[in-house]
Design goal:
The structure is a single chain. Helix 1 packs antiparallel against helix 4, helix 4 crosses helix 5 and helix 5 packs antiparallel against helix 6. The chain is mainly alpha-helical. It has six helices and no strands. The chain has one domain.
Length: about 160
């Protein structure tokens, strides 16, 4: 019994550490000036180009802008999942709402933070894009939960 409690406590601590580290990563990326941040996107564009994916010429759009916005979606998709996981390990009620609000207000604080960074600015559009990532994280977890629940129901039918 003591071993189970220690494993439970370990999971709680790890989930909080992972969430904090992800928040630090978002803060670090936001803390980079506009030139450095733009160069990050160019690295991805060049990487894709090395594989023959010249998306800018194929799609006819500014691909670095698209990559930056996809990064926002990804970062906040993962943030929501990590926040939900931490709350789940502590058996919080209303995990979805609290995880959403935590992630959403972190997105707002991130944009405010960028107002003080050289060559960066706050953007309401980025908050909407971050929120899209949060919603996708919520939907992803709902789908995974549904599939797991559906699988468990099938197991029960087979075992009876």
């Amino acid at each position: 019994m003591k071993k189970i409690l220690n494993q439970d406590k370990f999971k709680k601590i790890i989930s909080i550490i992972v969430l904090i580290l992800w928040c630090i990563l978002i803060f670090y990326l936001s803390n980079r000036n506009g030139t450095l941040s733009g160069n990050d996107s160019l690295v991805v564009v060049n990487f894709l180009g090395d594989f023959g994916l010249k998306l800018e010429s194929i799609l006819g759009i500014n691909i670095t802008y698209l990559i930056r916005k996809l990064a926002h979606i990804f970062l906040y998709f993962v943030l929501y999942i990590f926040a939900f996981n931490s709350l789940n390990n502590f058996n919080f009620k209303k995990k979805n709402i609290i995880s959403f609000l935590f992630s959403f207000f972190y997105a707002i604080s991130d944009e405010i933070h960028q107002m003080f960074i050289l060559e960066r600015s706050a953007s309401i559009i980025d908050i909407f894009i971050d929120t899209l990532g949060i919603i996708l994280g919520f939907l992803f977890l709902k789908i995974v939960y549904f599939l797991i629940l559906k699988g468990k129901k099938k197991e029960k039918k087979v075992s009876l």
